[in-house]
Write a structure and sequence with these properties.
171 residues, mainly beta, 3-stranded antiparallel beta sheet, 9 strands, 24% strand, cytoplasm
């Protein structure tokens, strides 16, 4: 019925206890007992490969000492309840699907190119600061840009000249 920790059953092979594989392991499914976690361990990294019917590599997840890397056409992180996509990335775009994106770093968020959003706000009791330390700050919209401070002052500062321009109306 098997050898050592390895048992042959009607449902497949049952491995009990800690075992070491010296060469690659190919299986259709691996799962642990309902009351025990599944532990995969390596002194370098753990790599999981997915292949198509022709044996070609279609996806790879590598968990190493310094990083977790995924190589695939599309990477997704889903919520445990409801399965909503919280984060996805492919070659063309990255989507953050959470209801709110919060950047907590002291330097804020830095964007190399344009940003498009219907709403920017600061945390309650915090100032909102839009800054371009070495270039211009431009806000454009086909139907207008609205800047308002519902409970405080609105302040615009610059080192040289402040320009407010209207092409068809008044300032």
């Amino acid at each position: 019925d098997g050898m050592g920790n390895l048992r042959v059953t009607k449902k497949g092979i049952r491995l009990e206890g800690i075992s070491e594989f010296l060469l690659p392991l190919y299986v259709k499914e691996i799962h642990s007992r309902k009351d025990s976690p599944l532990v995969l361990q390596s002194d370098r990294n753990v790599t999981v490969n997915a292949r198509n019917h022709m044996g070609q590599l279609t996806g790879q997840l590598t968990i190493g000492a310094d990083a977790v890397e995924a190589q695939c056409k599309r990477f997704e992180v889903r919520a445990s309840e409801g399965g909503k996509v919280l984060f996805s990335a492919d070659e063309d775009e990255i989507v953050i699907g959470a209801d709110r994106l919060k950047v907590t770093g002291t330097e804020g968020a830095v964007f190399g190119h344009s940003v498009e959003t219907p709403h920017i706000r600061a945390e309650p009791s915090q100032d909102l600061k839009l800054e371009s330390p070495t270039r211009s700050l431009v806000m454009e919209a086909p139907r207008g840009v609205q800047v308002s401070a519902a409970a405080g002052d609105l302040k615009a500062t610059c080192r040289k000249e402040l320009h407010l321009q209207s092409t068809e109306g008044e300032v």
